[in-house]
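Support reply, case 0932

Customer input (verbatim):
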Amino acid sequence: MSSLSFSHTVTERFLRYVTIDTQSDPESPASPSTEKQKDLGRVLAAELKAMGVADAHLDDFGYVYGTIPANTTKKVPVICFCSHMDTSPDVTGKDVKPQLVKDYRGGDITLPGDTSQVIRFTEHPALKNQIGNDIITTDGTTLLGADNKAGVAEIMDAAHFFINNPDVKHGTIKILFTPDEEIGRGVDNVDLKKLGADFGYTMDGESAGSVEDETFSADGATITINGVSAHPGYAKGKMEHAIKIAASIVERLPKEGCSPETTSGKQGFLHPIGIDGALEQATLSFIVRDFTEEGLKEKEVLLENIVKDVMKDYPRSTYKFEVREQYRNMKQVIDRHPQILEYAIEAIRRAGLRPMRTAIRGGTDGSRLSFMGLPCPNIFAGEHAFHSRLEWVSRQDMEKAVQTIVHLAMIWEQNSPVDTA
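Our regenerated output:
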């Protein structure tokens, strides 16, 4: 259990940050995809500078960097704590009105701005661990933004702790806040040389105590269908409709065991995310997910075989099948550095929680950072029901995340050798 004295300011920070709209836009080619993400970036850089983080700054691409210098004579690896500033494009993040449910006693939580939005106790099993805690929700008209402004607030609060408690020994700590994580471009323009970290941790996980060292491996697949056009009044025996071909492909996808709505745990899936077209040409977009590259390949072969089978009924039409890599399971990298995970588990214990090692049915900035040379598992931020109007987080879980960050930096220092140079 923690014997350190922590303030309780993380909630105040969080409530300020969620009112800043930082929704990213997958249709925008800009970096960051929306300029409004920089609104939060400017606030964070200014707050870090005010704390005493001398090099804190927001760059042109919307990244916030900062350094808390080491205060130890030991030779400690440089550790980075990272969270993303953007919120999901799935639900509006404009005019967020957070609600605080104090001393939660169980049962459903009806959101006051739209009473049809109800966080049901039976549908959110994590609520059973929140009895007596203070829960923050939206009013039901927007998402909350706990994904990942909870992580941002926790890192900011931990930074404040380190600066105001110089007797707590730690190595150099790097802070990184990223844009566009929700649209898969969170580290496209990160400057790892400038960051200068050896290992990292994203604060972007769910239940208190969880640490994740494994993600999906991910590809995107695009199928372009070229049909045969003809005047609809004289189309008999001539027309091969590209949209109908695309619809046939979707219809033949496996109903069980290979779709998001019928899989869980370590099962992967094929998931159509877009269809666009007209009579002559149509495009189908898919995401492909599995925990192994072999599993990805199997699903991609399955998908193309479905296409080939459908195309037999349309002999004068053609298709193009393209696959592009998105990210890979970070476990491949993290397993080479077991202390990263071991120290995180110990830090969670020292914060008074039971560690839970889990896998993410998704990806994080840490997935790509790991393969870019910064091994980076994911630690809980306390967020729940993300990407929805039912999103929530508890004050106590965020405070435990702050404590975990502090203990983690201390553990790295304690387990490092004295610098004899």
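We compared this against your earlier run and they match. Two observations from our side: Residues 72 and 169 are 6 Å apart (CA to CA). The radius of gyration is 24 Å. Please reopen the case if you see a mismatch on your end.
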